[in-house]
Amino acid sequence: MHDTHSNEVMEEIPGPIEFTAEERERFERLKKLYPTPKSAIMPVLWMAQKKWGWLSTGVMKYVAELLELPYSHVFGVASFYTMYFKKPMGQFHVQVCTNVSCMLRGGERLYDHVSKRYGIGHNQRTQDGKFSLEEVECMGACGGAPMVVINEDYHENVTVEQLDQLLAGLG
To answer: What's domain 1-88's architecture?
Structure first.
């Protein structure tokens, strides 16, 4: 794995942290799908991340309040799962698998290519906030290695040339 240490100060989401009336309805529907509010924590965190782009302390406290849970529990779940961002990421979040199958088929080369292209490393974003990069362990697509995900779009058997085309198409 590449360097994962960061000395960044925790930022906060600007403006009020609250769901709209429509989002509150979606939250209530989500909550009803589970036996207890605590069980809905993962989809509610995902919903919050989709709205604000990442989970600041304020957002996690808001989710804790909505679910009537201690902040420490929400923070623990958000910290355990790498799919939840605890700092701002780019508009286009590029994930490159470097686990065994992907590594053997060029995953590390793809990761290094994106890193050099944008001057960023693991879990960093460009100055303009447009791109962020993450090295991931396994995406469960070993037969399609190497694997790259941009936001929620999955790409298998990716070459450096194809990756450049994908990135160029993002604007």
So the answer is: Orthogonal Bundle (1.10)
